[in-house]
User: Fold these one by one.
Assistant:
Number 1:
Amino acid sequence: MSDREFTEEELRAIEAEMDKLTVDDVLLQTLVTLINLGARKAGLATPPGEEGPQRDLDQTRQAIDGARALLPLLEARHGQELAPVKDALARLQMAFVQLSGGTAPAAGEPAPEQPAESDTGPAQRSGRLWVPGQ
């Protein structure tokens, strides 16, 4: 970090930029940053010819959860404009499921309990019946 002090003119320029900035700008930028960072942590965004960092699926999951939390704050004002961002998030979520073997629960959720064989009927045991929460 630099020990340089800002001049009065530089400080005024920074203040002028802050006056132009909106909360929506920061939320949108944060949303995009989380998706990009999540892709990097999943090992999906390594530049060609470079060896990427080790995958960190916990960080990927946290980035996905953060992006999902921000979406509702932005949808009311930016609904259609968010389509490409939502698509990128959906692709990241699919990659996460594939990379984690489809077994990782969402953040904060315990792993789903499998019902005992006696708790299910024949259709459910066959895997052809969708039951909410199971």
Number 2:
Amino acid sequence: MRFAVVSDTHDNVPAIRDLIEVLKGERIEFLVHAGDIISPFAIREFIKLNKKIYFAFGNNDGDRNLLTRIANENGWIIGDIVEFPGGVVYHGTDRRIVEVLKKSRFKLLVLGHTHEAKVENLNGMKILNPGEVCGYLTGKRTYAIVEDEEISILEL
């Protein structure tokens, strides 16, 4: 299984478009987005990827009803905490929820929010933050590719 993981796109449409062009060249089965999509015009950009997408809401996401409708219309999954093949994604704003998820049965926990790309190992679970696609806080536009149990953090 090979899939892409992103977070914190923050309405940066040029960065989202660059990401989609890069991902079209990857052999991914689906995409996981760890939150802070922000607006309906940003989520619509992902239609061009033509893949199944699992979105977690972030703390800055605006009209959740419209984001949900767009996701549902495209066969995507969206919510506060979302399971995907091989793991679970949560934006990561509530440390208590993160601690509960760290004790779960999942092999991969995807978090966003901090904009800092990193991979941690905890009792057989990998915890992945792919960083930020927007590049606003770190100056780096990053994403991750997960293949089997190997994780690569890449820069756009």
Number 3:
Amino acid sequence: MSAPRRTLTAVAARAKAKAKAETPLALTRRARRINRDLAELYPDAHCELDFTTPLELAVATILSAQCTDKRVNETTPALFKRYPAAADYAAADRTEVEDLIRSTGFFRNKTTSLIGLGQALMEHHDGVLPHTMNELVKLPGIGRKTANVILGNAFDTPGLTVDTHFGRLVRRWGWTAETDPVKVEQAVAILLPKSEWTLFSHRAIFHGRRVCHSRKPACGACTLESLCPSYGEGPTDPVVAAKLVKSPTQVEASL
């Protein structure tokens, strides 16, 4: 086992040295290489919230704040059946909504957002969810991250979804040192083709949930070791690292 570890450590050392000295062009090339590698690794990367309409996606994304996707997906079928349109949310009984979404946490604030969303859509958009960033971020419960989720997955408008996984990974890859989500989004946007933004977001989130964990990334089992200047933050022994990798079933259970 010692020889593979030494080889991987040497590769990681070269990656860190290159990252410190790389030009903007070199950074762009490395970023695009990482995106291509992630595309091969996660060819089925997708939004893990269940929805059939733009409004359903907006509602599900609002509910996903401080909540797992799995819990949201367990909650939304009954909610979507009871409130299929903006008018239904606008006229909803607050107590009833709270009871339906209670398990997602922060249910009072989320109920306020859902009823407010329905009312705003009825008042300003004839009950139809708009499809521009400027219009979406003016709606109750919808910030820039949620708007990018909606635009990219419901309207096929490219957007970068800067959640905690996304931000952690692009900083580990040395793409940016920014922590503000808007600044992170701006930094990444210049590195990748616009057409790749939505799928890259899914790929990064998939990788963050499965391999590049917050506390203990599975470095020794990561295929990006030669491109990652943060290689070594987690165990580099392949056997030890492999035990940290989450299977699709394990990820689904924790979403």
